[in-house]
Design a protein that fits this description.
The complex is a heterodimer. Chain A is an alpha+beta fold. Chain A has one domain. Chain A is built from three helices and four strands; from the N terminus they run ββααββα. Chain A has a four-stranded mixed sheet, with helices on one face. Chain B is an all-alpha fold. Chain B has two domains: 161 residues; 52 residues, no CATH class. Chain B is 92% helix and 0% strand. Chain B has seven helices and no strands. In chain B, helix 1 crosses helix 4, helix 2 packs antiparallel against helix 3 and helix 6 runs antiparallel to helix 7. The longest helix of chain B is centred in the middle third of the chain and has 58 residues. The chains are: A alpha+beta, B mainly alpha.
């Protein structure tokens, strides 16, 4: 699977690696729902570290879209909320 | 649906919207390529803008550092002539500058980080735009309406995602830089207006400088005299007594300073 960390680029991850990171993704999401900024940042950092560790950088010249996309490392909770609502920072 | 799936879906739908703009799929390719080149130019400008802001902050750090070193020198000088009051004043002003310098250094590091991020974004986008150009030419050369659309969709969604990512990085860098520029402008204005000098003592500092100069010229005279007499060590002790006289002599000078300040 191709996972993109916004602002960093794409990584190739095995399906197993992705499913083992799903829990962390869920933690990030529940922190967002709870409005827990500190928890959100900590969980996001763990998740991104997990992707970087388990993944290998995807070929630079590839035009393949990512299967999964993650917020940038310094994203705030508010930014990610905007992103998820679809009318945030993502330029159309 | 998990967070990372939702974000990727939103990206894809944005990329798809961009796809619907031209009737002939081949035009879509050219149109998109043009947008990619525009975006590349925009990232380059972004890198240059952030670098300009960073250099400006560095210049301010240097200016304030010079000022701070000067105050440190004045404090040391004041101590050697046993004027703890002047030394204290100089150090107080210096501590105000120190916190500003620390703040500016944080900004400098942030701008440096943004600059590096955008430079990497530029490299990534550049590689994909070049790949897209090759793909575009291949699709156009072997164009058959039936298979074109799916190939185009494939190429477009990949590049569209990269463009969305880079676009966001530029926007964030601009927002951050704008905030810092506002603060940098405020500091520039303060330096230009001389208001900061009051706090940091360029003008007002002259009262410290003037007193120190008066004293040091006094002590230079003493030292000179001592040399002429053929001895120098005892004069240092007399310096303290001279300091007392100067303190008295400085009283009217200080009033003048505050008067002239009022009229400024």
């Amino acid at each position: 699977m191709i996972v993109r960390i916004l602002g960093e680029g794409q990584y190739d991850l095995s399906d197993d690696a992705v499913s083992s990171l799903n829990d962390l993704d869920a933690t990030v999401e529940s922190a967002i729902e709870a409005g827990d900024e500190a928890g959100f940042r900590a969980a996001l950092r763990q998740l991104l570290d997990g992707v970087r560790t388990a993944g290998a950088p995807h070929e630079a010249e590839s035009l393949a879209p990512s299967d999964l996309i993650l917020p940038m490392a310094d994203a705030t909770l508010a930014e990610v909320k905007d992103m998820l609502s679809g009318d945030g920072l993502i330029p159309g | 649906m998990s967070m990372w799936q939702r974000i990727s879906l939103i990206f894809r739908s944005k990329a798809n919207k961009a796809l619907d703009r031209a009737e002939d799929p081949r035009e879509t390719l050219d149109y998109s390529y043009q947008r990619q080149l525009d975006l590349l130019a925009q990232v380059r400008r972004g890198v240059a803008d952030v670098a300009t802001s960073r250099k400006r902050v560095e210049l301010q750090i240097n200016q304030l550092q010079v000022q701070s070193d000067k105050l440190q020198g004045q404090a040391e000088q004041a101590i050697t002539v046993q004027r703890e009051d002047l030394a204290r004043e100089a150090l107080t002003r210096k501590s105000g500058l120190t916190s500003q310098i620390t703040d500016l250094k944080t900004q400098q590091a942030q701008l440096q980080g943004e600059e590096e991020k955008l430079t990497l974004a530029q490299q990534r986008l550049s590689a994909k735009v070049e790949a897209f150009r090759t793909r575009k030419e291949t699709i156009k050369a072997t164009y058959t309406a039936a298979e074109a659309q799916s190939k185009i969709n494939e190429a477009m969604s990949g590049i569209g995602e990269e463009m969305g990512d880079v676009g966001m990085a530029i926007q964030r860098a601009e927002d951050k830089t704008a905030q810092m520029q506002a603060r940098a402008s405020a500091i520039d204005e303060l330096i230009a207006s001389g208001a900061l000098d009051d706090a940091t003592s360029l003008n007002k500092g002259d009262d410290i400088s003037r007193e120190l100069e008066a004293m040091s010229s006094q002590s230079e005279v003493e030292a000179e005299l001592a040399r002429l007499k053929g001895g120098s060590a005892p004069q240092a002790i007399e310096g303290g007594q001279d300091g007392g006289e100067i303190l008295a002599a400085e009283e009217p000078a200080q009033t003048q300073t505050s008067e002239s300040k009022d009229t400024q």
